[in-house]
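Now for one protein, fold included:
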Amino acid sequence: MMLKTVAALFFLIISGGSGAGEAAGLNAEEVLPGENPSTPAEQQEGLATAASARLDPLHFSNLKWRNIGPAVRSGRISDIAVVERDPDIIYVGTAGGGAFKSVDGGITWDPVFEKEGSSAIGGIAVAQSNPNVVWVATGEPNGRNLVSTSWGDGVYKSEDAGKSWTHMGLRGCQQMGRIAIHANDPQTVFVSCIGSLWDTAEDNESRGLYRTIDGGGTWRKVLSAGSRAGVVEVVINPDDPDLLYAGAWQRERRDWSWLSTGPESGVFRSIDGGGTWDRLSNGLPAGDTGRVGLSICRSQSDTIYAVTEGDGGGIYRTNDRGGSWELLNTEVGSSHWYGQVRCDPNDPERVYVLSTQFYVSEDGGETFRTDLLGRSVHVDHHALWIDPADSDHLVLGNDGGVYFSN
């Protein structure tokens, strides 16, 4: 009888406490499973007892409610992609809520990624040469020392502007970062694979940068930074699509700790379309470096900004395609939760760094200000799109949603 009473108490707790079913207009038969011929008679008796039990509220009046999961953060924005020829068409990826599309400049939104295998979005990109082609990499990249990061099941492609999706492989990546699409060839795509948040190095053979030249039919790992480092960032030079840069990130999550830096992190460059890669070091930090973010200045593509965490973390700039780098600022750094920098496509001296605060520099990264956003804009910034036709037109994504500036 004690077990039957406990079962009834457990039912009342998980269904909302005393009288929760009655308050919702439900009776016990509607809430509890009905009799099943395959259920042993003893279990049926227990279910009947639980259904008819009326416990004294004092038995559980001191019980406290607590959230036991799942650990999702669905509203957090992880990436933004906009159709440049029609900037009213916007795609956003969320940490745990799938992808959304707007065709009216953000006034209304429709979910476009509801039936796929994972709703955790790591990266989203539009092929500007054919805007009907949209890519989504699943598995949020912003891992931290909390169990709030959802894993993915690979990469997806849409060829009808988000109406339908096809799974294109890379299921083993689990956590994924930036996607880069060749400017003139939508069949050539690079996807950054961070790898499992929890596994040891030996279990992370998937980590690295992948390339397809046939629209996702086949994939080749073109960059492996090390057994413990995944790739979180990839950018393509707008004037020379054979010139690419990638950011590797060594990190490891454990039940008792979080390691976000290591010697395998760093910046890599390819001059042959991703066939071969060299680690860049002239002026960049050595030692235990963390997450790396990169941005090529569209109007002056020899200029690239990098934001790093860990030893020597800060804002770096190169004016010679990565041959040499200069540390500009150590006060405005980044962390594994952000790792994002954006150069204004029309002004190489204006650069944005996304972190807890929203930083902007007008002098090429020497100094930054944080007073552009009012108190009504949420903190914790993860994504920014700058209109190449109008640098005053910004789309910002953070933990609070999507914000616009015109």
Remarks:
- The first strand starts at residue 77 and ends at 82.
- The chain has four helices and 28 strands.
